[in-house]
Write a structure and sequence with these properties.
There is one protein chain. The protein is an all-beta fold. It is built from no helices and 23 strands. The strands form five sheets. Strands 10, 13, 14, 15, 18, 20 and 21 form a seven-stranded antiparallel β-sheet that branches. Strands 8, 11, 16, 17 and 23 form a five-stranded antiparallel β-sheet that branches. A four-stranded antiparallel β-sheet has the order 3-2-5-6, with no helix packed on it. InterPro entries: CarboxyPept-like_regulatory. This is Carboxypeptidase-like regulatory domain-containing protein.
């Protein structure tokens, strides 16, 4: 078992941090560790770990462990760790420079005052927003493409504009036209918008969806029991959080897309990277009640 060295960091009870023994002076190095909840100390599966606004990142596994490969040029950057329902944590890379073999990072639960939502006649009108056709002349990859190992944590989605507000989610649906993974898992994220880009997660509940046995076609995500209500336009995205390396050929998951100059799609190549936009209309739609 690797030794664990406890390193006290301001405002956090038990952050532990470390680099692998491949020192920064000799080239790339790894930041390795586990992410836990500050209160009950339980590990947090699928937390996002990455360099803030950089295409370098990863996702913790189902037991909260992660390994992030960095280079000497990253010493001036900032590591951000985030998780649905928890306050994000930011630390300079150099703060971990002289640590030991493993990191343990504590995240503090986000306390949100929830307004009671009563499902009444206010939410009786069902509307469908998005693209329900599945033509495959144009297809968009929802994971990074290339010959090298794909970067887990990549995220893709679209801007949702409802006919009226407030509106309540019934379900989110997306169509996969090609899937080389025997098992792949995504997290559904719903963000507020700032400057027309995804900004803050709107809800504290984590929604995960898995595709098994190279599944293609429509995949519905039922949200009828969650009472997710939006009061303005938002971003709806899928973030890649887990997979099985048993795959067909190269890693590939495709969603059909149509040409459109009025619809906005969002993507980022790593979990804490800057968002980018592209015009188009993904084969994905949302059922809302307003």
């Amino acid at each position: 078992m690797k030794p664990i060295i406890i390193l006290l960091l301001a405002l956090f009870a038990v952050p532990i941090a470390s680099f692998s023994q491949n020192n920064k002076a000799h080239g790339p190095f790894q930041l390795q560790g586990i992410i836990i909840a500050a209160g009950d100390k339980l590990s947090l599966a699928y937390a996002s770990v990455g360099l803030l606004n950089k295409p370098v990142g990863t996702i913790a596994d189902s037991s909260g462990h992660f390994a992030l490969t960095l280079s000497p040029e990253n010493m001036a950057d900032t590591v951000q760790i985030s998780m649905v329902g928890y306050l994000p944590l930011m630390r300079p890379v150099r703060e971990f420079e002289n640590s030991g073999e493993t990191i343990v990072i504590s995240l503090t639960k986000k306390i949100t005052q929830l307004n009671e939502v009563k499902v009444s006649n206010q939410f009786s009108h069902v509307v469908i927003v998005g693209k329900q056709s599945t033509g495959t002349m144009i297809q968009a990859s929802i994971i990074p493409k290339g010959d090298s190992a794909p970067t887990i944590g990549a995220e893709t989605g679209f801007k949702l504009h409802a006919p009226s507000y407030p509106a309540m989610f019934d379900n989110v649906n997306f169509y996969v036209s090609a899937n080389n993974f025997k098992y792949i898992k995504f997290r559904l994220n719903i963000y507020s918008l700032k400057n027309n880009l995804p900004d803050t997660l709107l809800f504290n509940k984590e929604i995960l969806v898995s595709l098994n046995n190279y599944k293609t076609g429509w995949t519905p995500i039922d949200l009828t029991t969650d009472a997710f209500v939006i009061n303005a336009d938002c971003a709806v995205t899928l973030q890649w959080v887990d997979y099985n390396k048993d795959m067909l050929k190269s890693p590939l998951v495709l969603i059909p897309a149509g040409i459109s100059f009025s619809h906005i799609n969002y993507y980022r190549m790593a979990s804490q990277n800057k968002w980018k936009t592209v015009k188009g209309n993904l084969s994905a739609y949302v059922s809302l009640r307003d």
